[in-house]
Specification:
Layout (H helix, E strand, L loop, with lengths): L3 H18 L8 H7 L3 E5 L7 E4 L6 E5 L5 H16 L6 E4 L5 E4 L2 E4 L1 H14 L2 H10 L3 H12 L3 H9 L1
Parallel strand pairs: 1-3
Antiparallel strand pairs: 2-3, 2-4, 5-6
Helix pairs in contact: 1-4, 3-4
Length: about 170
């Protein structure tokens, strides 16, 4: 059994391979990526806190996005996250996700859902690739300016940028 860190590294490599296959660079058009990967997007309302869901057993796989979410950086991250569930081979079934809550209820206790964390790592790598980010960090030593440039050039939210920088 691979450790959590080993699985995250594999997930990042899966995202990098997909990025290379489609020649992606920031800002990534995740809607075009979904189309190229033959994924169907549906919008559904009243998701009760769920940002999106990947219906992996459908043919082609369906990604349902919460139609009530209008903040585009979050919609883009959610879509990249759900594409991650489709592309990560050990993720199976239907995944309903809130991208900022990586927990699942197990016997009335909250436990970390490693598949949610893996899908977040995938989304981060697709939207803000580590190699691209390293180049930005090497060029800009003023943190507020760095953060502003990353958000502007990637179309990602400030929180997604913090996640990428942390990881």
């Amino acid at each position: 059994m691979k450790s959590y860190n080993e699985r995250i590294e594999i997930v990042r490599k899966i995202a990098q391979k997909l990025s290379n296959k489609h020649h992606l660079s920031p800002p990534v058009d995740v809607f075009a990526l979904a189309e190229k990967e033959n994924l169907r997007i549906q919008y559904e309302g009243n998701q009760m806190g769920i940002d999106g869901a990947a219906k992996l057993n459908a043919d082609p796989p369906i990604i349902a996005l919460n139609s009530e979410q209008t903040y585009q950086p979050r919609v883009r991250f959610t879509l990249a996250h759900e594409i991650g569930h489709v592309k990560i081979p050990w993720h199976t079934g239907v995944k309903g996700c809130s991208t900022d809550d990586p927990y699942v209820q197990v016997q009335a206790k909250k436990q970390v859902d490693s598949q949610e964390l893996e899908a977040n790592a995938f989304a981060s790598e697709i939207l803000i690739p580590r190699e691209w980010l390293r180049q930005k960090i090497d060029m800009i030593d003023d943190f507020p300016l760095l953060l502003e440039q990353i958000t502007r050039e990637t179309g990602a939210s400030t929180m997604a940028c913090f996640y990428a920088l942390e990881n």
